[in-house]
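<backbone_tokenisation>
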Amino acid sequence: MDTDELTAILQEVRDRVTARHPESAASAMPLPDLMPLLHARDAAEAKVAAIGTVNPRKGGPLNWVVQQLKKTIARALDWHVREQVEFNRNVMACVQATLEVLEETRRALTMAEELRDIRAHWAGLRAEWEHKLVANETKLLRGLADLNAAFQHRAGQTEGFFRDQIKLQHTDFTAAVERSGVDIQKRLWADLERIRLDYERLIHAELRVIRQRAAVSAAATVSVASPPVVQAAPLEFDYGRFAERFRGSEDYVKSGQRFYLPYFTGRRDVLDIGCGRGEFLELMREAGVPASGIDLSRESVDTCRHKGLEAETADLFAYLADLPERSLDGIFSAQVVEHLPPERLPEMIRLAASRLQPDGVLAIETPNPECLAIFASHFYLDPTHTRPVPHALLAFYMEEYGLGLIEVHRLSPAIESMPALGALPSEVRDAFFGGLDYAILGRKL
């Protein structure tokens, strides 16, 4: 390697390290200078190269003779100095190898110093960078937290405001719609009821005119003069205990009869035909409705009077016939019509209808023959039953004698007392095993 080239490389390394780390250049450990060693090597190589050569002299014959002589002597002594020359060359080779090793060592030391300075500088930069990073992250997170808190506060205020406004408007709108819907529905149903009532009154009036023209009034007169129902022979058992066992307790019967309260609330004179133990009369008293009852059983009437209820022993036909027409605004009869002879049932309906005021209500409850279950375990338990009455027949009688707005309601589902019916398809169960009883209601036209 050329001396000038090596020197330039060393200087370039020094300049690069000093430029990167000027603050550490002054404190860095100085590296040994190899230039004197290089000069000594060059001089030694020059001497080694001169071995065996003849010193040049000025030209001329004498010089040529001298030079030839010296060459002859050098060739003659070549065997003697050969080992010395070889030794010298090996020494110079060793010196050259040493210089190269020293140069590599110097270069490694320079690079190590540079790397050490870089590591120290990078450690400082990294610590400073991490400190700044932590500070910036802290500021960023604090700023985000402040922004989020402010946003949540404003959003909560805005959301609450809009929620309150929407809720208020929705409430007002819903209330207005409900009020309007209820008012419209009430007016619509009232109009429909009035139209239906007028229509049925018109039909009844026309039928009555036709009947009068057909001279059927005589038959009606004969019906009015019909003798009262002949009482059967007194039963040889306690009928009150019988009703308690097979019809149910008073509380049970009363809970079922609460169904009729909306139809009789506000009435001024109600009659209970077949009042029994007085469950319906107690309901009327609780509702503030004046009511009285009649029954063929003196024991039942005594039970009612013991409760402070108004009741008397009477035959329904005689009692109704003695009342003035249009003297009642409500008649209730539960579990009675199935005890009457079939031919007397129309007479009962006619008398009851004639004693009702316009818009007075007649409510009759009786076993439902559409429900086959009553024939299996209910209807024939009572030996005083004659035959069940289909609701279509009662509806026909009511319409014949001036009652309209007929309603039929099935009561006491059979499945409640006969859970085995749940195994039947719903269509079959509803058609043949529905309510054990039914209620039929009509209003005087």
DSSP finds 17 helices and seven strands in the chain. The first strand starts at residue 270 and ends at 273. The beta strands are 270-273, 291-295, 311-313, 328-334, 356-367, 403-413, 435-444. The first helix runs from residue 3 to 20.
